[in-house]
Amino acid sequence: NERHIATPTRTKELLKKYDFSFKKSLGQNFLIDTNILRNIIHHAGVTENTGAIEIGPGMGALTEQLAIAADKVLAFEIDQRLLPILEDTLSPYDNVKVVNEDILKADVQQEMQQYFGDQKIKIVANLPYYITTPILMNLLTRNLPISSITVMIQKEVADRMAAAPNTKSYGSLSLAIQYYTEAAVVMTVPKTAFMPQPNVDSAVLHLELRKEPPVHVEDEKFFFDLIQASFGQRRKTLRNNLNRQFASRFSKEELEDIMSAAGIDGTRRGESLTMAEFASLANTFTARG
Ligand code: SAM
């Protein structure tokens, strides 16, 4: 166990051996607690039949535990300086492939097809916090053959992604994530599990991909525009926010008409509307052109 990458001793050794300096701009906070990694992998539901994708392997702390638990691992790392280190640390494992690419630019679908064939895949990662939302939205909207995503992210963002209506964390991000997945925060992780320690608290978010969206929406782009508009100013009523955002397209009377046809009281706040209510409101708009 002491020889595992995710320990303070081994991590310090590697930093020294390769004269590696952390890049804050790449969100480099490496995990140094093997038990936490095993826990993440357990929550992800990884078994010896699982094909796993990792984003940002760093020095291989999580990659190693995935190599042990999963069938095969495909990892995307943007920082070229880490490649020789990964080659060294992962040399005991023959079921890992590292790709030196930005996850937002890589042809993930093509890489997956090549490496895994038709296997269903789980994504497991300790994400770079500065681009958590772009990475997750990018993966979710690309229609990749994945069954779940389990990621360490900033706790505050994890709470927003998994939030229910009428809570302070609920907003357009909750609805965007939950349109594609069933979301749950499965564990919180102390700062001491990282090197260097991040400034924010961390949590693990588990996203189980839906086969179908939970609501029927005629025009997805408008649905998400409407949600954005409804949360425009959190303290204002739905009526106020919609009047402000849609003034050029709909009169006050038309907006009242649409809300009442959708059965939604304009004095409510955006944060009280469920996804089903947003869908019904959006579809009523769409039907009125
Ligand atoms: N998995 C390692 C661990 O847990 O110790 C490192 C996690 S660290 C929080 C995030 C990693 O993502 C870093 O290795 C960083 O270089 C990498 N990274 C940052 N932006 C990336 C991007 N756009 N595409 C791929 N990797 C990225």
Automatic annotation (TrEMBL):
One of its GO terms (molecular function) is 16S rRNA (adenine(1518)-N(6)/adenine(1519)-N(6))-dimethyltransferase activity. It is found in: Cytoplasm. SUPFAM superfamilies: S-adenosyl-L-methionine-dependent methyltransferases. It catalyses: adenosine(1518)/adenosine(1519) in 16S rRNA + 4 S-adenosyl-L-methionine = N(6)-dimethyladenosine(1518)/N(6)-dimethyladenosine(1519) in 16S rRNA + 4 S-adenosyl-L-homocysteine + 4 H(+). InterPro entries: KsgA/Erm, rRNA_Ade_diMease-like_C, rRNA_Ade_Mease_Trfase_CS, rRNA_Ade_methylase_Trfase_N, rRNA_adenine_dimethylase, SAM-dependent_MTases_sf. Its main location: cytoplasm. S-adenosyl-L-methionine binds at N29, L31, G56, E77, D102, N126. Its EC number is 2.1.1.182. Residues 36-211 form the Ribosomal RNA adenine methylase transferase N-terminal domain. PANTHER family: DIMETHYLADENOSINE TRANSFERASE, DIMETHYLADENOSINE TRANSFERASE-RELATED. Specifically dimethylates two adjacent adenosines (A1518 and A1519) in the loop of a conserved hairpin near the 3'-end of 16S rRNA in the 30S particle. May play a critical role in biogenesis of 30S subunits. This is Ribosomal RNA small subunit methyltransferase A. It comes from Terribacillus halophilus. The gene is rsmA.
